[in-house]
Structures are given as C-alpha cells and as structure tokens.
User: Fold these one by one.
Assistant:
Number 1:
Amino acid sequence: TNIVARAHPRASHTVTPHLSVPDVASVVRFPKETFDAQGPFHEKDANGAIVHANVIIGDSVVMFGRLGDGAPQVQPTLLVCDDDVDGTFARALAAAGGESAQEPSDQSYGGRCGTVRCPGGHHWSIVWPVEALTDATKVAMRADIAPREPPSPRA
C-alpha cells in the first residue's frame, strides 16, 4: 500500500515531528523568530495555558505538546498518519522489531493512536482521525486537560 496516498487529512505531510515540552508557549517562539514560522495554531486548557500548538515552517508542520506534571522530557515523536493504525502497529512489532510504547486506542481528541519504540529508541505514533470533533467535544477535552491547582504555599 502506498502510505503517501493515505496522508492525514488535517496535516500537510504523512510524517510530522511532535516535540513534548514543559512550556509550549515559550518553545514555539523559537521557530517563529528563527525560521519565520506561521502560527502557532493552538489549543488551550481551562486556565488559558497552551497545551498543544502547531507551527508551519515552509511546507512543514511541527507539533508541540505540553508534558504532563512530573513527566520527564522525552525524545521527539514522529507522527505517521495511516488509516490502518492497528495493522501498521502490528507490523511494526512483528516484522520491524519495534516495541509497544502505547497500544492502539481511541483518544479523547477524536483520533486513534498507537505508539511504537523502534530499535533505535525513537517513538513512532501511528495516528488517524476516527471522528470529527464538535465544539462541545473540544470544550470537554479542555476541561479534561486542565492543570491541577498548584499546591498551597508552606507557612
């Protein structure tokens, strides 16, 4: 099958880099100021903090996502848009020597995703949309990812 012919309808390319970072807002300034990137096109949590952003550099999209509280910094993830998430995930494990980092499952953002760690240690997320998101669903998603209240200062 020609994977290029199955490019994700919401992305400009079949493979898109995704960087997990502690502070999305501060990190997206770098490609904007350095490479004249367009954007960011972003999602915010209930407190107005950016939790996900896309910037466009030339003809390419780079995605940024906020790390969860206490999560360690990770290597970049390559998002591969493929309409057969489960089949491609299985091939990555059986034939290509990959290890499961996240079994394929439907995600709250309306996509299906499975993540494989390749023999080189990099994560490859195989993704495809399974439903269109309504405005109500987006609002509910923002509520689900709202950060916890900060701890009270010690007296």
Number 2:
Amino acid sequence: ILVAQWFALQYIFLRFNIYADGLSYDSSKIFYAFLHDQSLMLNQTFLWMCLFTPICIFLWGVFQSHRIAGPLHNLKLKLQKIRQLKDISEINLIEETQFRRSDYFHELADEYNKTIHHLKDIVDIQKQNIAAIDSNVVELKSFSQSDTTKKDQAA
C-alpha cells in the first residue's frame, strides 16, 4: 500500500511536469521549482510515515497483546494456587481476581470470582455438617457411657 502511494505521488508530479511542458513553460520558471520543492516535501513526509507507521503498529500490537495475555496469566496463577492447596478448607486463603480496567475477559474474572465464592460456601456448609456430626458423636458417646453406667449400677 505504501509503495502504491509513493508511486501515485510520483505520477501526480510527473503529470504536473508534463502539463507544464505542454504549456511551454520555461524550465527556469518558478513553477518547476515549486513542483520540485513540493515533491521533496511529500517524499520526506512519506519517508517519515514509512518509518513511523510500523513503530506505531508494533506498539499498538504490544499493548493489545498485554490486554489479552495479562488477564490470562493472572488467571493461570490463581488456578495454580488452587491446585496447590493441600486441603479444600484452605480455599479461604484464595483471593478474588481483578483485571485492569482496560483488559479483556472481565466476564472470565467474574466467573472465576463466583466459582471461588461458591467453593467457599460449600466448604462452610461442610464445616457446619462436620460440626453437627461431631456434636452428635459426642452426644452418642455420653449417652452410651451413661447407659453403660446404668447397667453397671443395676447389676
């Protein structure tokens, strides 16, 4: 595209020169000097554009890739922490994740946070169930001990 633009510029200035020759302008006229100066200016501008555009595209690409790779890396680290847990009751040590405002995949972070909350709720319910079972076991032990002491006293 850039090469086609350069050729288009050269063609335009060539057409102006042909037009001036058709009007029988003297080659020392200011018109030819003006065309030459304008051609140099546009060629320099074109050269700077050719140098500056790839740099801008590269920087934009790096920025965009960080908006994608950053959240995925963040989520990967959080999932690795979960996988390293020795016991599910340690799930309370896992914190929520937050992505930068300019990042992509905010829905993924929300879903991860909902899942962590759900797991924490399940762990809390399981802890309550275990506590209830423990209290029932203690109650059964005390009932069993009182029953055996009554049998011993009756005998």
